[in-house]
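Quick question: what would this complex look like in 3D?
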Amino acid sequence: MAEFRYTKDHEAIYVDGGVAAVGITAHAQDALGDLVFIELPEVGKTVAKGDEIAVVESVKTAAEVYAPIAGEIIEANDAVVDDLALISNPVNDNGWLVKLKIADESALSDLMDEAAYDAYLKEID
Amino acid sequence: MSLDKVDYSQDRGLNYEENLLWEKEHSEHSGVDFPDLKDTPTRTGMDMRDDIGLPQLSEPQVVRHFVRMSTWNYSIDHGFFPLGSCTMKHNPRLNEKVARMKGFAHIHPMQPASTAQGALELMHELQNWLAELTGLPGVCLAPAAGAHGELAGMMTIKRAHEQQGNAHKKIILAPDSSHGTNPATAVMCGFEVRSIPTAETGRLSVEAFKEALYRTDEKGADIAGMMVTNPNTCGLFETDILEISELLHAVGGYFYCDGANFNAIVGKARPADFGADVMHINLHKTFSTPHGGGGPGSGPICCTEELAQYMPVPTVIKGDDGLYTLENETDRPETLGKLKAFQGQFGMFVRALSYMMSHGADGLRQVSEDAVLNANYILSQLSDDFHAPYGGQPCMHECLLTDKKQKEHGVSTLDMAKALVEYGYHPMTVYFPLVLAGTMLIEPTETESKDAIDRFIATMKGIANDVREGDTEKFHSYPISTPRKRLDEVKAARNPILRWKKD
Amino acid sequence: MRYLPQTQNARKDMLDAVGASSIEDLYVDIPKEAMVDGLVDLPNHKGEIEVERAMSALARKNVAAPDSPFFLGAGTYFHHVPASVDHIIQRSEFLTAYTPYQPEIAQGTLQALFEFQTFIAQLTGQDVANASLYDGSTATTEAALMAMRITKRKKVVIGTELHPHYREVLGSYMGNIEDSKITDGLESIDEQTACVIVQSPDFFGNPHKYDAWRKKCDESGALLVVVVNEIVSLGMLDSPSCADIVCGEAQSIGMPMSYGGPHLGFFACRQKYLRQMPGRLCGMTEDADGRRGFVLTLSTREQHIRREKATSNICTNQGLCALAFTIHMSLLGEDGFKKLARTNHEAACYLADALDGVDGVSVINEHFFNEFVVELPKDASVVVEDLATCNIIGGYALDGNRLLVSATEMTTDDDVAELVHILAEIL
């Protein structure tokens, strides 16, 4: 079943068929400002939850994007590196950064759904 | 400022436009004349190099080029520079003059010591002054700048642990208010950084320190040391520093004191006496060598007798025969080695010692007192108009404000910094330290008169008043009277153009 | 106390405004144990005349290059600096400006840095250059560290004779990296090699071609780092454009020797390695009205943003030294720079021929730029000391009987004649 998930570090995840498309939320994009550079990982690498999988940079800040869940990196979105504006598109469209083949789908329950993430945003505001 | 658009001149009054060297007509004459070549056959073993693509101009063209560009710069000689933690103070020209004496400027770092006794004596004298002012007797002048001094200091700590069989000590404690160089330096040395949260008081708390100290080992056996700026970057002296340094020393850790804020206490208090084991001194801050638009700096380190054997080389020693020599690896095998070719930024040593001698013990104490008084005065005058998170108590040589009150009206710290630019000032340090949102760190230094400070206060109050009254639109487009308006940093970073190139 | 503007009245008014009864009230947070009781044990303040007198006395105890026949190089060179260079860098607007973080009021510094980067990129034949590093030794070390980051390998090979101080500095830094090592020579390049460091002219003055090194690097996946510590040589010798990184020391253009610093480290590389490059960078952009302007850029690589993830802990550059270089290069121009190089080479050729004529002295180098090694009939360090007593700075004593000597545009025929004369006496 396809669904959206979120983390407290503001990663947005679209899970479909055992694959997680990972990007950053609109809130994270607002906080960073205009992006100037995106660094993506090598495809084929196996990562643990919390490992750095990408870096997004604005003029003043560089933010690491962490793996929301353990798995193997099966695809990196080179199109978004060439056209940074794509990042504002939904992660289930072409706004994702990395696609992970999820190692253990039961770990998904640790991640927030949309309602929980909205509540979290209100809480930290 | 709106310019009438005409196509026959880009300049207006004293506002000049100036193109790049490569965009000027290629002159037939070099700006430097040489005697005729003898056309000796070459012995380089290779052909002459092809066209490099350099521009070519006569001397008057070159002089005008750089003088016109210079008029676009703000400097400490122009006006007040309240840049927190950067200590932008007056640069006496005497120091420039003495550094250019031929016996200092035109001597070679590897010429025989017998032909450089004056230079070595000067370095020895500077070592003595720094040792006395910090209370730390081991001094190495070699590091090239503050961050390089940090590296030298942290590598000294690392070397000490290794030599004493404590290589397992890997953790460095550092408050989250520290300069970004601190964690970068610790990591370069192979240490692991453990951040200590700053308490609401703007200081380190003993509880938070203890929690970090014993987090992974109940005896703190894995702790290599801590890096603390004192006074800290919130402009406050760490009141519990004695207890904290005792706790650290008890687990065998060393206290690295970041000397960036030494101007607050120079001649008045000595870091060794509050527990520091090693610290760097920014000669370009406390001792007024010019910033030069971003260097050269100079970052000597001072350390305890115990650590002195591990410091980098060279240091200058005075022999029983009264002769000065450079102490090198062969003389001191425990040393961590060299971190820079030759002896360090010697030209800066000359300037700094000239400055120290001019002030003397009495003058340096007055430097500290005036710097601290000026900062406290600004804090007292601006506390009503701006959020002063640590107000109501004395600060050291700099004071911290935030944009909390202005933010409600849509005006941020960045806007106010750019407004100061419009009103003829260099802004204060903004968005640093990172412990609070929208910070503004103001350091007036001792070389401002009350007059100058009052004018700055009036400007700041004026900005606060405009914001309160809703006159805020202008702040988003400032500055407008400068040679350039706000520059597009996103464009610069997205598609970096870092050099001129022929189309 | 001529640098302190506050009056006693002003101090009193300010204390009142603060609500303090005395200055000591503002130091209450400092533990008593750390406060100095009275004054530190140093002399009190002095006037300008007294300071200048004391400094002159120290300066006079040194043998200055303009006052002696001077043949010492070894990584720091005695060159002429045009008068207008020092005049311009002493303008308040350049000398007393801060790092150009506020670009609207620092376009002068920024445009000069942009021009500096262009000069360095052109001279080295590289795509991009940074706004300078501390000196040649730290630039070389940063190049090795950058190559290790890019290749994820931990071995550095020293290809040709590297300046001994540069090698020591590299060794000190590499000691911080577990399992890293330094080896020597073309044969030791392998699949674990991060980079090969080729200094040209090498420490003994030999110029090198880069083809064989480039080929070996391509085969092993190592980066080629070319180190130049006499930048004037780039006016004659091959461009190191085939290298991945070119770095070194640029003191020769615009700076006095100053007993070892401040000097000017430079650093250039290929475009594809830009984001791994340490140090400040100035880039071109536009202002709100679309007019060309300059800013510091790509600063997310640096320590004040990345903190522990920065490419390097380097914070400052050698701003004013980079400016001096840029002004001096502008004055020289294409013809002047090449003529400076030729003049240096001719002076060195003249010196070599003169020394070859001294009984028992022979020039070792077949090829050189402005520096070479001579074999003496006795210990070189003794000869250097003997020459010093005759007011000649004779060169750098290598091991045994070998002496490294250099000549520049400052070397006169009379200087050479005096050296030859004294050598004939003492050898």
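Answer marked as accepted. The domain at 85-326 of chain C is CATH 3.40.640.10 (Aspartate Aminotransferase; domain 2).
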